[in-house]
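Changelog-adjacent note: as of this version, every example in the card shows the full chain rather than a window. The one below runs 560 residues end to end.
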Amino acid sequence: MTGEHIWSRRIADELWSGIVTPLTFTMLADLMAEHMVRRRLDNAGLSRLAASPVFRLSRGHVYVNASLVAEVMREVPTVFASEGLLELLPEGLRQSVRESGRSLLSPTLGTIVLNLGLHERGWMPWTRAEVFRVEASRIAPDLAALAVASDAPSSVLASTINEVRARLGSFLEAVSWGMIHAYVFFHLTAQLIARWAPDQSASIAELTSGLDGIRTFEIHDELLGCAIAVRADAELRAAVMGDPLRVAALCLSGGLGAFGTRIRMLIERHGHRLVGRDLSYATWRERPAVVIEMVQKLLQADPRESAGDRRARHDEVVRRVSAAVAAGLGGSLRLLVFERSFAWCRTYYVLRENMRYHADLFLSALRSLALTAASRMVALGQLREREDVFYLEAGELQDALLDRDERAGVLAERAAMRRGSYAAFRSGNAPESFVGEDLEIAAATESAPSRPAEGLALRGLGVSPGRAVGSARVVHSVEDLRELRAGEVIVATSTDPSWTSLLAVGGAIVLEMGGLLSHGAIVARELGIPAVVNVAQATRLLATGDRIVVDGRAGTVALA
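Full-length structure tokens:
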């Protein structure tokens, strides 16, 4: 691959989103690049591409090498490079992929498949889901075996961090092909519907709602059950609405009867979830009040479909689309192809969403180890505050634990300086894409969005059908969701799976980043909320309180 790389936040948002601290990036990025990209390319016989850089952290945001993604897409048959996948690429790269012209009979494809058969374990779609299931079942016991006491020697702490990261690498090996299959079969199924059932009102969005086995929505249904129980008890409702922190403490201390038991069990099972996609965010176990706040919000939300209702709607859509695909000459063969593609679409759609749930087990473990190290470093004068540890790089943390660091004041100053820079990154401008090494120039020269006096109309990618009118609520973090009122339109850069039950209060979702398989899109479809993503500068052009109209099918956002 020659020339300057094109770097994209749009692709990165499928794996990372929002501000990412140096510790998180250096702990995870190379692992992800190695296990999810480089080894896959090497094993496919594409070693010339495997040498390319994959991720880059700039101004607190992660960028993916879009040029590398485009090169890989040119190597596979164009039937798999759907328009939905091409949406992830910057505009300048899309046409070159469209023109690559690879067919299913391409010798290149045959060579890739042969190489993968020789070097990859269970990469095929009919085996990969089981590889992932087995791997996921081993995570919790493996991490429990790696747990160390808070007073363990610093050298042991450093070694354990490396062991957890190595175990994460094994998980990423299992995830890699599952993620690829999720994108391929989601978009392939969408293409088959458009070609063979064009008159059906059902879309891929409706076909992938109501699926069983997605942990995020199983937790959401548990929280809905808690809200229903609270709604029937006036005294408990008053407590939940009045003081979530106190209610959480009572639940964890054994109080509040059956409701308290349900909350304790939920946190015991799912307390490893982080409230954001960075090690700097607390877990539910650390901040149990966030779980009560979700119940609080669900008390204010209009009742939505139950899990049973969602499944029934899903089954009816599948029957209708299948009948349309099977109609006419050659229908039996078309139906066979559609059913196989859709079966893998469902399997890997669930896997793609559950991947983050299981990944939180590793993030929770790494966060705990980092904070244990930070407490010691503060006592030794190596850091000013515990939270400064997230602004170190992984190598710097290792060196400090192994007494290989520079003098303490230098490390503390470095971490504090980076933390100060991140305050500016959170409120600053980071372009969606840039070329070569010119991010700073791109960020500096990209003009601030200008809001017209009237007639503001924005376009993006519609990812969840429906139309909603409501007041905008601009959200920069989970804390901002505390102010969310029922029916308001959530406007954010991106969302997190742990926000799901808070998002259920919203009337619609508008995101600056994301695609059809981003978490915000998946959550919106499951909750039946209209959503539009890839709306450039939405959080700057829209303001809290604006009355807006969101069309999740047309992909438009406008002032009402």
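Structural remarks: The chain is about 55% helix and 10% strand.
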